[in-house]
Every structure is written in C-alpha cells, then in structure tokens.
Amino acid sequence: MVANGERVQSNRKCRRVKVKSQGNTIIADVYLLNLPGYDAVLGIQWLKTLGPITLDCNNMILQYREGDYNRILKGLKQSSPQHVKASKSLCKPGQLFIVKFSSLSSEPSSVVDNHELTALLHEFDDVFKEPTGLPPPCPCDHAITLEDGTCPVCLRPYRYLYSQKNEIERLARELLTSGAIRPSNSPYTSPVLLVKK
What we know:
alpha+beta
C-alpha cells in the first residue's frame, strides 16, 4: 500500500540500492513500482531498518543513528495545502515517512494505464480532435498598425535541403486545406516556415 492508500503490486525487488541524499548514503531494498513523478519512496520497511528514530514534524527533520554517526534528513518546507495536509498525517502513529527525490532534467514518466481516464477521454473525444478550421471569429480582429512610410522588411529565406522542400509544401497545403491557416493578403507577409520573424 502506498501513501495515498492505493495498493500497488510489484513482483520485482532490488537489494541494497544506494541512494545519496543530503550527504547521507542510504542503503535499502526497493520494490520496482510504476509511480509517475517519484524516483524513490522510502517507507516503513526502510524505517524499520534504522532502529530508534527522532521525527520532528514541526521542523521536518528525521534523525537516526548509524554506527557512531547521527544522520539527519531534512524535509522541504512548502506552503502548499497538500504539503501541510501530508505533514500532519505523518505525525499520526502508523503512518509513513515519505521522501521524494526529483531531478530537474528528468524525462516525463510513462502514464499508468487507467481505465477511468481512458473512458473519460473517449467520452469527450470530440474535444481532442484535430482542428478542421480556424477558431470562431472574435468581435475584433488583431491588427498591427505601422507608421506611415514604413517599407516591407526584406529578409533572406532560411536555407533548407531540397529534400525538405516537398515536405514543407505538403504541410502548407494540408494546413490550408484543413482551414487551420489562411493565406495572408498583407504586403508585409512572408512564408512563416521559411523566414525568421
């Protein structure tokens, strides 16, 4: 069972995985779970290996002894309501202590197969269809008013391979046909795909 009360099955286990956090090296047996957004969750199984611990919920500090050393893990102080709710529940007996490791450059996790989500997406699939035309007209059109006497800007087109020419023309035709774009009749227009704007 994970922190939100949901039961997650795992039939794979990695023994003695080393995790470094805040200068501490944590060695724990970990179960492989499909939990998007979490690299590791250290739960009650890990806490049992530490022996006596001190948990200061007000200062978000977990302290334990490892050999001759005192080890300290500090939690992130955030003001979000979810964090406050979670920190209150952590102080109740029998709850888990959660550690979340995040990487700033992490790849998006794969989405868990959720039948309710799939059913919801199918129910509203018309919202997610490819557009077949321009959006509804607005009460006023957007216009950029130029100063009198302004001449059209002349820019050199981007260079592209001849092999890309057919694909660019095909995409432009497809977008025009579907109504997603329309030809411009402005004297200042230039091919968006080919000129730096």
